[in-house]
Structures are given as structure tokens and as C-alpha cells.
Amino acid sequence: MLLAVGAIPSMSSDIHEIGDFVRRADALLINLGTLDTARKLAIEAAIDVACEREIPWILDPVLIDRAPTRLAYARQLMNKRPSVIRGNAAEMLALGGDPTSLARETKSVVAITGAIDLVTNGHREITIESGHPLMGRVTGIGCAGTALIAAFCAADPDKDLFAAVVAGLRTLGEAGEKAAEMAPGPGGFAAALLDQIYFASQPR
User: Fold this and answer.
1) For position 97, which CATH number holds?
2) What distance lies between CA 66 and its chain's CA centroid?
3) DSSP line for the chain
4) Beta pairing, strands 84-88 & 57-60
5) How do residues 106-136 score in pLDDT, each as one tens digit?
6) Over 80: is that where the pLDDT of 97 sits?
7) Dihedral angle of Cα 86, 89, 91, 94, to the nearest 10 degrees
8) Is 36 inside any structural domain?
9) CA geometry: angle 93, 61, 147, nearest 5 deg
10) Measured distance CA(138)–CA(183) in Å, rounded
11) Is residue 24 a part of any domain in this protein?
12) Is residue 204 part of a domain?
């Protein structure tokens, strides 16, 4: 999805090179989908470089509602002030429940995604009604959506992260609606979604 929108993804979990990757990046995405000790060390080193360079870093607290140790680690990372936190309703409930309070406490943009998305920075709040049920039938759409948010944050010249998150989610939702018109099922939908993301990124 990042390639489709015109971003250049770099993926690494090696403690010896992660700093070099982040020093050349415009945003950092931390996805907790796969965790082990080595990855945790790389995550913390990456966040330190992102904070040093003052680039936005985005936390996707994948499945923290399923494992107490994962939830504890996500809370530890929140002390490092993520620019954006994006999760589903169950993950956000585990983190703290009320999105406005969470946004104010962490000074982050908080996005809860689902049938209706909610985005808040503690002062501004918006709901987004877009997308299609097939999005919930394809593995990785949520994680890819967070990556799309990171790309929008990286590319925003005004550094208005609230607006960037809203734009990223709207782009994903509208692309999902258009893809569903063309696809009979999840397999075709995944390909059509990438096509629609690509079309949305082209100059008009």
C-alpha cells in the first residue's frame, strides 16, 4: 500500500541498522504485530532517533487487548509520546478507553478505526463514515491503513497531524468503497483496493 501511494517503505528490526533507516525517514511506524526481545530493542532505538530528529512516529498497538505483557509494553512506549496512536475499539479500550482523555494525556492524535472511524487530538474531533465490510475480510488492512496514515503524516507540509490522519483514513475508506464495487470477494478486493489507492495518489 505504501508503494501504491508513492511512499518508499523501509522495514528493519536489526538494532545495528535501524537508526540509519530512521535518520533518512520522514516518519516512523511502530507496529506491535510481531514482538520479541530483539524487536523491542530495535523499536526503542528507532523511537529515540525519531524523537531526536523530531519526525512523527505512529504507534499501532496490535492485539494489546489479547495479552497483558503486550499491553504493558504499549503503555511503556506511550511514555515516549507517539505523534499518532491508531487502533481498533478493543485495542483503544485496553489503552485507556476515552479517546479524548488519551489524546490529551499523551498529546497524540488518537484514531479509533472501525465501521465509523473517530479521530481526535483532545481538542478537535471528527468521525468518518466510509469503507466497506470487505475491508474486514482481508488480513492486514488495518496495519496497511496505519502505514498509509504514516505516509500522509510524512508528506504533510503543514505538519498538521490531525488533518493528515483524517486525510489518510478518508483516502483508505473511499478507496475501499470503490474497490468493493469491482470485486466479488476478498481476493479480488485486496487487489482492487491497491489499485484505488494508487489512482487516488495520482495528480488530477
Assistant:
1) 3.40.1190.20
2) 19
3) -HHHHT--------TTTHHHHHHT-S-EEEETTS--HHHHHHHHHHHHHHHHHT--EEEE-TTTTT-HHHHHHHHHHHTT--SEEEEEHHHHHHHTS-HHHHHHHHT-EEEEESSSEEEE-SS-EEEE----GGGGGSTTHHHHHHHHHHHHHHH-TT--HHHHHHHHHHHHHHHHHHHHHH-SSHHHHHHHHHHHHHHHHS--
4) parallel
5) 999 999 999 999 999 999 999 999 999 999 9
6) no
7) 120
8) yes
9) 125
10) 12
11) yes
12) no
Containing structural domain, residue 160: 2-199
Q: What's the angle, vertex CA 150, arms to CA 107 and CA 45, rounded to 5?
A: 75
Which residues are registered as beta bridge partners of 113?
A: 88
The answer on pLDDT for 204 being more than 80 is no
One-letter amino acid at 182 equals M
What is the C-alpha separation between 29 and 120, in angstroms, rounded? Answer: 19
Number of domains in the chain: 1
Query: Does some domain include residue 112?
Result: yes
